[in-house]
Amino acid sequence: MLSMIDIQKIRADFPILNREVNGKPLIYFDNAATSQTPQVVIDAIVEYYTVYNANIHRGVHTLSQEATDAYEVARKKVQQHFNAKHDYEMILTAGTTHAINIVATGFTSFLKEGDEIIVSAMEHHSNIVPWQMLCERTGASLKVIPMTEQGVLMMDVYEELLSKKTKLVFVNHVSNALGTVNPIEFIIEKAHAVGAAVLLDGAQATPHLKPDVQALDVDFYVASAHKLCGPTGVGVLYGKEEWLNKLPPYQGGGDMIDQVTFEKTTYAGLPFKFEAGTPNICGGIAFGVALDYLNDLGFENIAAYEKELLDYATKALKEIEGLRIYGEADEKTAVISFNVGNIHPYDIGTIVDKLGVAVRTGHHCAQPIMDFFKIPGTVRASFAFYNTKEEIDTFVEAVKKAVMMLS
Ligand SMILES: *Cc1c(COP(=O)(O)O)cnc(C)c1O
After folding, report:
1. Which end of the chain is more exposed for a tag (fewer CB within 10 A), N or C?
2. Site residues for ligand 1, CB cut-off 6 Å
3. Residue minimizing CA distance to atom 1 of ligand 1
């Protein structure tokens, strides 16, 4: 368990936590939207641009080789983190959204009318819209696993939806709006039993736990570095080698080719087939450093400490009259979505910001969830391992103050 002393040490790693907002110390509870960046990651970014900024995979000169080596070391770190079999199964992308689009576009050539693909009712828009576009292109149809009022997916209905027509199932490992940890082992096993592939959107799971793609036997797993203490605009698509070999390239361009003539172009092997153009080199390197940082802390420690914060905040918030929490699954990450009475979430968000607290308000890129609960949105407080119980106390007082002013 992380002690208070460790917490002070950890907080010192994040320079942004020293700043003030509206004359108050910043309390950053919007970690589900993006995480803050530790000094080691900032240093890696500065070092890249100060010492060895160069394009990769093509220069014989020293800087290019140093940059290429660092980038490929980062890929290995990502491979080890997710426990993939091969480093070339890790496609470095611009993030989760980009990774999902690579797969959704690639599946165009595998689907036909009458085929079915399955999503869940609690997805981020980036795990809905690319698949709707895929259905428009192919005539396949989209089925939805419903959820309960507690924000738990209905696995009995899922089993009924599965059939020989099912080609692909894509669900988030953890919901960004509700915090629900989904029963992914069951989902994968049942999908494979009918011959369907599975893609897991790990954008919201990866900050809190360490997935093992081989143990899960998942076909595709995607995540974003910026929710993992890394920079924005970089992420990963893990795909099983067989799938990545079958899947056509997403973008054409430099670095993804073997031979180019005007008659015919042949593609490079993995992972380069999916990495056209100059990538976010510095971002990829910094992603590797961020994973090192988190693994040094240890995901078991992170999860245990965040669970304490979640339980503490849930209990304190529930004492506020008229407050309803959305997402009450037994297995949750440190995300609390709530409303108080009929007060608009935006109004609460605005007042707590005046008091230095950053929370998210709105639909959290998951409008279908808001429609399900028949609400315009929620206030969402999402915690990270660098947050404290004292911050939660201040936040709860701020919410109480907001409620008093608004009701
Ligand atoms: C943040 C998030 C995304 C989108 O990630 P980007 O980095 O914006 O591409 C997708 N799914 C979930 C569950 C998320 O939390």
Report:
1. N
2. 95-97, 124, 126-127, 172, 176, 201, 203-204, 224, 226
3. 203
Range(s) within the chain of domains with CATH label 3.90.1150.10: 2-30+298-406
Phi, psi of 215 (to 5 degrees): -65, -40
Mutation choice for ligand 1 from 31, 93, 126, CB with most ligand atoms inside 8 A: 126
Mutate-to-test residue for ligand 1 from 176, 180, 209, highest number of ligand atoms within 8 A of CB: 176
For residue 58, the model assigns a pLDDT of: 80
Topology of the domain comprising 42-295: Aspartate Aminotransferase; domain 2 (3.40.640)
CATH of domain 2-30+298-406: 3.90.1150.10
The stretch 374-390 carries a mean pLDDT of 97
Residues annotated as part of the active site: 365
User: Encoding tokens for residue 375?
Assistant: 């609400």
What spacing in Å lies between the alpha carbon of 201 and ligand 1's midpoint?
8
Beta strands in 110-194 (DSSP E): 116-120, 141-145, 166-172
Tokens of 271: 């992972």
Closest C-alpha to ligand 1, atom 14: 203
Range(s) for CATH 3.40.640.10 in the chain? 42-295
Beta strands in 138-270, from DSSP E residues, in sequence order: 141-145, 166-172, 197-201, 220-224, 235-239, 257-260, 265-267
pLDDT band at 91 (very low <50, low <70, confident <90, very high): very high
| Distance between Cα 401 and ligand 1 center (Å) | 32
**Cα–Cα distance for residue pair 197/118, rounded to 1 Å:** 10
